[in-house]
Amino acid sequence: MGATVALIAVAAVAAIAVVAPAAPLRAGAMLVALLMTPVLLIAHVADSDQLSPLTDHPALAVAAGVVGLLVVAALARLFQRRPETFALAVVATLPFRVPIQSGASTSNLLVPLYAVIAAGVLAYAVPRLRHRATIALEPRPRLLEWVLVGSVVLYAVQASYSIDDDKALENAVFFYVPFTLMFALLARQRWTRRLALQCLGVLIVLSLIFAGIGAVEYATRHLFLNPKVIASNQFESYFRVNSLFFDPNIYGRFLATVMIFLAAMLLWSRTKRAALLAFFVLALLWGGLLLTFSQTSFAALLVGLAVLGGLRWSPRFAAAAATVILVAGIAFAVASPSTLNLDRSSADSATSGRADLVQGGVDLFTSEPVEGLGSGSFSREYRRAEKASSEKAVSASHTVPVTIGAEQGVIGLAAYLALLALAARRLFRGASRDGTRAAVAAAFAALVAHTLGYAAFLEDPITWALLGAGVGLARLPALAPEA
Q1: 452-472 burial, b if ≥16 CB within 10 A, otherwise e?
Q2: Which of 58, 95, 168, 354 is most exposed by smallest CB count within 10 Å?
Q3: How far is 267 from 70, CA to CA, in rounded Å?
Q4: Hey, is 314 helix, strand or coil?
Q5: pLDDT category, 347, cuts 50, 70, 90?
Q6: pLDDT tens per residue, range 393-425
Q7: Assign residue 387 a region: left if phi > 0, alpha if psi is -120 to 50, beta otherwise?
Q8: pLDDT by residue (tens digit) across 281-340?
Q9: For residues 447 and 454, what is the distance between their CA atoms, to the nearest angstrom?
């Protein structure tokens, strides 16, 4: 119970960092949340063997800690002198997960991104606490920000009756709290057309590198990461690549997001050079996306392109084009089901077990429809209800609304739907007049579509990055070219 109270406290402090009316109060809340999160995590694993790598090699642990602090301090100094570099650093570190062996398990953590967030907090908070009178007024939070941080606090509160509060705590300290701080910083970033294009340039370079690595994996039939995907490839007639990601679907989601940005560049570009660059990179990334065999990523890309079409021309035109593509896709699936992994004997096998997980999640929701079974409880509750082995049960239903319904009930679903509605209202308003904002809105719509067939919504930093950038961009009537 003590850990749950601490979890609620750190979630509340992170929420204050977003919605507090005064900049000094926000800055202080950011620093407190930044310090509380690792303390809560260490206290959580203090009695387990997960700390053994540190306790067995204390000198190495201290050295690594000192190096980490020096890196964070150097980055904070850079962000303070050149604030625009924070957004670039966030974009550059979003995809990178570092496998860390702890005890008998391996966790894939966003260590580079955590360092960037910590440095960004220091760069933002320290000047506002030292020189309160010299900091310009900042925009006040609106309803979207309140619902977003309310969802984080609600998740922490509903961990109090979960049978797997450890999972809820890990989700909060690894994802929800640090990403809340990242959102607060990105939403207050001074966005310009130049900065937006620089972020796109970083994404293009990263996506081309990832696609190249994926092509090498496909050619050599050898994956660099994720033993589960490596094992599944040995029993399938097709070969899925995941590049430097730990999941082909997350890799596909990243590529689809970048492709939507490039499509917006192509549609709103006023120069042939930019249009040709976008078209060329799109062709290369399409080849990379095909090798993932990620059906949800293909669907997400289609949704994003349809949204772009609606914003650039008209919703009717976009709907008609999307219908034609959808019909063509269905015809292709019927004619060649093996290409898309659909020639299976049942819906569950064709979806790699997801159909059973979704049905199990619906059953869990109906058992406790109002408040749910508690944050982070899906895997244990599913395994207990279905009498399934640990190998069959996973951490989520691979359909985010089903997972939220099972864990958080109607209360959580209401917060989720409110968040989607407010995010759409903020991101889409006026987006048709600006290609940059249209790209962010379409990418967010595509990500939501992806989560309907896969996991990770607020657990994905891309969600928070898109919301933060979208909120910052929405404060500007239009991004005019810089002098």
Answers
A1: bbbbbbbbbbbbbbbbbbbbb
A2: 58
A3: 43
A4: coil
A5: very low
A6: 455 667 899 999 999 999 999 999 999 999 999
A7: left
A8: 999 999 999 999 888 999 999 999 999 999 998 777 777 766 776 676 667 656 666 555
A9: 10
Cα dist from 438 to 139, 278, 304, 343, 371, whole Å: 22, 16, 10, 37, 36
In contact, 259 and 187? CB cutoff 8 Å: no
Contact 93, 113 (CB under 8 A): yes
pLDDT score, position 335: 64
CA 119 to chain centre: 20
Contacts of 28 (CB under 8 A, 6+ apart): 125, 129
Q: Which amino acid is at 245?
A: F
**The model's pTM:** 0.88
| Residues found in the chain | 483
**One-letter identity of residue 194:** R
- The full 3-state SS of 224-236, as one line of letters, equals CCCHHHHHHHCCC
pLDDT at site 46: 62
Region class of 454: left (phi > 0), else alpha (psi between -120 and 50), else beta: beta
**Number of helices followed by number of strands (H, E) in the chain:** 21, 2
| Cα 151 from Cα 146, distance rounded (Å) | 9
User: Between the CA of residue 104 and those of 111, 227, 228, what are the distances in Å?
Assistant: 20, 15, 16
Residue with tokens 């599944």: 232
Q: What is the DSSP letter of 172?
A: I
Which stretches within 313-399 are classed as H helix?
315-335, 347-350, 354-367, 378-386
Q: What is the CA radius of gyration of the chain?
A: 22
Tell me the per-residue pLDDT of 26-48, one tens digit each, with 9 for 90 and over: 999 999 999 999 888 888 766 66
Q: Within a 13 Å sphere around the CA of 16, how many CA atoms are in the beta-carbon half?
A: 18
Q: Which residues of 212-241 are buried (b: 16+ CB within 10 A; e: fewer)?
A: ebbbebbeeeebebbeebeeebeeeeebbb
